[in-house]
Amino acid sequence: MSPDAVGLDAVLDLVSLILILLGALLCLIAAIGLLRLRDVPSRLHAATKPQVLGLILICIAVSISLREWHVIAFLAAVVVIQFATAPLSAHMVGRQAYRNGRLDAGSLVADELRDAGATDADATSEDDDEEGDGSDRRRGGRSRWPAR
């Protein structure tokens, strides 16, 4: 091995180490944010943004460290799946928190769901059961979705 190759390996290993430490720090910050923040939107922010960035940094570090194509391809797929699932799961959790009334309405800048009638409070009551068989109720609560 030439001295240049050894120097390049050492630099890439150092870069990999720094990226892993930064990624782990971001994942730790995301975990602390989930525990410490009070409202659902803040927790969703902590669960998605720093965690995804931390995972990306760790995947890049592993790719730099191992320098093999099959590892890079696998980690690229992991990152793409994370990009696809993190916003979707955060959206679903946030929407359910809104429907259950767990969000502080004063903290919302815009409330598009209020106009769409997406809360359970706006749903039909059990007296408004169209079928008369209780099919409009789900899980003991009210549903805004019509019975099938």
UniProtKB/TrEMBL annotation:
Signal peptide per UniProt: none
Q: What is this protein called?
A: Multisubunit sodium/proton antiporter MrpG subunit
Q: Where is this region: Disordered?
A: 116-148
Note whether Transmembrane helix occurs among the keywords. Answer: yes
Identify the keywords attached in UniProt to this record, alphabetized: Membrane, Transmembrane, Transmembrane helix
Q: According to the UniProt entry, which residue ranges have a biased composition of type Acidic residues?
A: 123-133
Q: Is the keyword Transmembrane assigned to this protein?
A: yes
- Family (UniProt): Belongs to the CPA3 antiporters (TC 2.A.63) subunit G family.
Which residue stretches does the UniProt record annotate as biased composition, category Basic residues?
A: 139-148
Question: What organism is recorded for this protein?
Answer: Homoserinibacter gongjuensis
- Which spans are transmembrane here? 14-35, 47-66, 72-93
- InterPro entries, alphabetically? PhaG_MnhG_YufB
